[in-house]
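Here is one chain, start to finish.
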Amino acid sequence: MNNSNNAQLLKGSLSVMILRLLEDRDRMYGYEITQKVKELTAGEMTITEGALYPALHKLEADGLLTTETQVVEGRARKYYSLTKTGHTEAASRVADLSAFLNNLNLVLNLKPSV
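Its structure:
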């Protein structure tokens, strides 16, 4: 997939991906999120810091994430976790995106008319 097209598609679903990862993993730090997406997609999707951190900050400002700073190997590392509202919102947004993708697949897999 073309990287610029990939980036545009990714931007629209990034917050849902973050919420879903945190729903699954309880808490993660930024770099860990980027690496998990890369691992899950066998390198097909990469999230840049320039896209990730604004999305994390928006989710935090919306009350969906909470943060905790912990010193690891002498460096401060900020961990993100879902709030109670974040858990509810994660389930809702994942369901919405999944339904959208199912409908999109119906259109993309349209058989030629006879």
